[in-house]
Specification:
heterodimer, A: alpha+beta, 10-stranded mixed sheet, two-stranded antiparallel sheet, 12 strands, B: alpha/beta, 8-stranded mixed sheet, 28 helices, about 15% strand
Chain lengths: ~400, ~725
Amino acid sequence: MTEAYVFDTVRTPRGRGKEIGSLHTVRPVDLLATTLAALRDRNALPTEHVDDVIIGCVTQTGDQGGCIARFAALEAGYDLDAPGQTVNRFCGSGLSAVNDAAAMVASGYCDLVVAGGVESMSRVTMGSDGGAIWDPRTQWNVGSVPQGISADLLATLNGITRDDADAFAVRSQQRAAAAIESRKFDKSIIPVKDDNGLVILDKDENPRPGTTAEKLAGLRPSFEMMGRQFGMDALTKDRYPQVERIDHVHHAGNSSAIVDGATAVLLASKDKGAALGLTPRAKIRSVALCGTDPVLMLAGPMPATRRALRKAKMSIGDIDLFEVNEAFAAVPLAFMAELEVDPDKVNVHGGAIALGHPLGATGAMLLGTLIDTLEERDLSTGLVTLCIGGGMGIATIIERV
Amino acid sequence: MTDSTKTTNGQANVSFDAQTGIATVALAMEGRANKLGLAFGETLHQGLTWAWACEGLKGIILTSAHKDFCVGGDLDALYKERDQAAMMERLRDLHKLFRAMETSKVPVVAAINGSALGGGYELAMACHHRIVLAEDRVRVGLPECLLGLFPGGGGTQRLPRLIGIQGALDIILQGKTLHPTKAKALGLVHDTAATPEALLAAAAEWIAANPKAKQPWDTDKFRFPGPRPGTMPARQILMGACGMMFSKSAGAYPGLQAAISAIAEGTVLSIDNGLEVEARYFTNIACSDQAKDMIRTVWYHRRAAEKHEGQPEAKDGHGLTKVGIIGAGMMGAGLANVCAAAGLNVVLKDVAQPSLDKARAHIEGLAKKNRRLTPEAREALTAAVSYTLADDDLDGCDLIIEAVFENIELKHQITQQLEPKLAKGGIWATNTSAIPITDLAKVSVDPTKFIGLHYFSPVEKMQLVEIITSKDTSPDTLARSLAFSKAIKKLPIVVGDGFGFYTTRVFSAYIMQGAQLVAEGHDPATIEWAARKAGMVVSPLQVFDEVTLSLIVKGSKQSRMYGKNVDFPGMALVRSLVEQGREGKASGGGFYDYGDDGRTLWPGLAALVNKPAPAVTGLDFLGRVLLSAQAREAVCAIEEGVIKNPRDAEVGAVFGIGFAPNTGGPLSWIDRRGAATFVAELRALAESHGDAWTPPDLLVSMADKGERFFDAV
């Protein structure tokens, strides 16, 4: 057994996940290839040393079908001997890919693995890959409601009000705007260019810096009609009968935005990195997974975090910075309340509400952001965690080296 | 030249017209209606085979020799079937037969000359063309879900392929049966015909114009109507159906879930594979306890009650020409309305003109909105009701129904004052919900003509009438009251006398148990959902607010007089809510607050109760306790001679007070648990919660002897 180190991370900017988005005309395999190529070039990485390319991608159909990891590696000009694997653990895919890569390295089965993620939500619609979760039979055997309903249920159970959620969203926007303004993401962002070398997109285009609480207050709750008129709220009653009525607090302005993006992370053993002349930036202290009630769906980060801390023999107070995916405002708010975490340690440069959540990539992107920010502030340990469809949770603890 | 004969088994008439090349198969099964029973497959097969052998055959008209086309499955066979392999085989045989008919290349037209319901409509869907006789008596549709089943003769596969997933869900999940015009509008049939002759002519015409008929799903270019199954829009429709179904049924009806699953899973497959998937789900549901229990009550018990089985019959019908109703409140107005609708002359009497005006507005308003009424019928209905403050206008009534406040002194006074207005031999009926008839009849000049007719609000919608006889009420009075019930289309149960009769005592047990659970510290929202999950149509605290808390508090004085215990924490809680002005929905708040956004539980309940949640709680426990309280009461009612026929306990509970229809009724519920188990549970509750739970002797005896209320299936 050895340890897995992170040597570098890169990401594309996140384009708006619509037809008008800047990355809509870019094939997902090219988005990913851009990051793989940049990772190689920045580190002068001889790709015959890449033991595997493990990529998170959720909606693996259409442009994202086949095994996008392998073909992106080949498109990026990686050595033929660099295989690829595409993994789907819903919103946690990117971090799951990182964790799997870390495990292959730490176990000694591999020496160097590129992890990452990609999702072009503008080209491959979320949910278009179908699945058992859409079957009525699975819904009543297992329990499932649309994620917005779960988010509103999470808010209701935790006493998170519309005002709380909107205030958090404003904060995410302000922090993201400030970070972009002071170029905090420059270290990792790789511009997406066309064959002519012309820039298609070189900065995150989703944030709305002028967002205020007043503007958000005017938005209608997105899930109220489906919840109350179409009976989705009723589907939560068997598990949460004490909730008489779900308070519908979420809307597009305080939920993660739909975007396009890709990311790549270079992991290797210390020795392998040294042999290739690379300088490690962080090491993986622990990883953790968990499963919770699929109806509530979004409460996974808390048990996953506790498990990761236990495995790392750390306490919550030992963590300097957190990245808790802003799938919906209620998620980080519930997380901070339950684990008693200082909000100033969480998503310090904004999160998915402002920047967007490219499903399969986010987990790995958050890891990259976390490392950049620890370096920027000269802090030591960080934790990334995401809530995941089906009630799962995932967490990774890293330590700067 | 027409060749005509019968099929070998004699259950269908077959004929062939050599000139047109059209064979006609008219189902003429034993009995008065065609049903999909054991003989059906053989009959249809013989009919088709005979037709297919006709030289020069161009097409087949499938019709009925009975007044209805085909009215569904043979429930007798299905009710008893528990062998799942056997049921699968029968379903596969049926699917094979229908598929043979629709793929034989010979066009088959369903000439629907009467109602086509359930399997009867599924038969029609397996024909290439459907024309229905547009008479008002005819209905087309799929009511199986109302019995706890769902369409298992191909309905979940053919209907979506005809009208799309959304349309099919609407009709199947709600058990809709449609008037011919509506059936055509929604695409269940292709066309309507004004007369039986026009029907057959149109069928023949269609055959001549369509010599090579194929079902849409058997053509190469078949396009699924509406969103294609397996695509996102289709998935969203199904999700919406799941949500809406669940919010209405709280998951108490697996038949509904199976219907949705059969549609979702079968429509992405070929029709033959889809039919196999449907068969698996149908077998699972039809062989289940719940289906048996629901069929027993909703089909057998209900029909027996409708037919007045075991009750005296009035040889000359109800013999009523003039009906008087005293009290123009909601109940009186509703009663006047249904009487007028049945063609009876009604005098509605009150002491306050505003009440009469309100009643008139109600009756005439509903008549105006009722589009089924012709202008003449509307005129006749409104003219049939007269409104009066004058006692004398009741002179000569053959029946007077007293529907004034629940107060024995007032009812005595009204009886003494107005009973003399009855025509000779006239009947005096009281609509009391709880006061013993014997006691009310004390001031009557003729207790043999005194009877209780307890209706339920709103009278236009609620089918049940609880008929209460005292030991003096004559069989003739009962018989004529039953005939009157039939005339106004009510479903009667006949019970013996006793405070609260049957329905009120069971209903009171339900709502008081709800209040009691709140008083014990259980979470109110959980109590409400537990009731729905157990199958109760309305949650206890919600319905408590609707009947008003003050009514119960006022009634408790009377209850105490009749020996009922009214000193328990639940009642104390209700009293303190009333003391605070929280009297129920009409007064703006009770257990619930009522606002623009609907109702929400009053946040002050917890402080008022001031108790921690008990250790043993949760959906299963609370649901069981709520049903147990009612079931126990039902057994007491039998013991005390109030319920004389067990079927009345089921019919009264399910159709009068919304007792979990999914269970079949309180007695079915006990049978399912087993009397011994129920006795043990009651004893445990008595230990922890007091003597009120002690199992009645009748139940203990049944447990000892291993007896049941109804035969096991």
